[in-house]
Amino acid sequence: MRLLRISLTVAIAFVIAAASGLRAQPSPPARTHLVIVVDGLRLRGYVDRLDVTPSGDMRVVDYKTGSTPREAFEAQALFQMKFYALVLWRTRGVLPRRLKLIYLADRDTLSYSPDEHELTKFEHTLRAMWTAIERATALGEFRASPGRMCEWCHHRIRCPAFGGTPPPFPAGAVTEPGAAGVDAPRSAG
Question: Fewest CB atoms within 10 Å of the CB: 83, 86, 139, 186?
Answer without folding.
Answer: 139
